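Dear support,

I submitted the protein below through the web form. The confirmation email said the job was done, but the results page showed an empty box. After a refresh the structure appeared. I'm attaching both so you can tell me whether what I see now is the final result or a partial one.
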Amino acid sequence: MPSTPLPIRIEDAAAYQSVTTEQTTGGHVWAAAEVLLDFFRAAPGLVAGRCVLELGAGTGYLGMHLARDLSPSRIVLTEMEQGNALGWLTRNVEANRRAGVPLPRLETAALDWRWVEEEELGAEAEGSASGKADGGREGGGCEAAARGPFVAILSEAWELVVGSDLVYNEAGMAMLPRLLGRLLCSRGGARGVSMYYAHTLNRYEFYDRDFFAALEAQGLSYVQAWPQPEGDGGGLGAEGAFSGELFPEQRIVVLRISRAPVDR
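What the results page shows now:
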């Protein structure tokens, strides 16, 4: 009879406040992370044996459970360094390791989404300085050369990207699609790599509409992977439209986001 795995524990709010200098959403395990974990437990083949990147890992709850239970070949949990968010993530991971939780293939790393903008600005400045004599291409997306401090992340052969409830302010809504526009076509990545993203719909007025429009502007497609849509109004429409309710309730969905066109 298999033994019960050691529990994964997240340090409390007092510890979070003592470690971080900016308190945002990373001190709490949100329901979307639990929904995404259940989704992967029902489809373990999506994770097993794959090289996985988690964006905005926060407490590390999702990534640590995937590492302990679903056998990825490697999993890297990322957070921004600002406010010591990465320090908080790493603290939770190391505390669980000391408690004996097996996390042999798990790493933590810095990833600030603003690096995409800094890289694009650097590329524009370089192109202007050289007069674009080489016919260099403008803008981001797959066509931009990897520059800046996250070149290693962009060039890694990721086979799966994951994240949960990452859109909670205008900056994140704008930057996440730009980051995904780079990650889902990274030079080392397998063709057709997807992100599975647990998203709370209808939390903020207009954010869903603007987020989906920003994904499309990056050449990304998205479909609702869970729950399975029922009928014409059960999920996301072709343009990201919803049921048309005047006061729609918040609900968590799992989206599959990919550069390649996906069947709707």
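Response: this is the final, complete result; the empty box was a page-load delay. The beta strands are 51-54, 74-79, 106-110, 160-164, 194-201, 221-226, 251-258.
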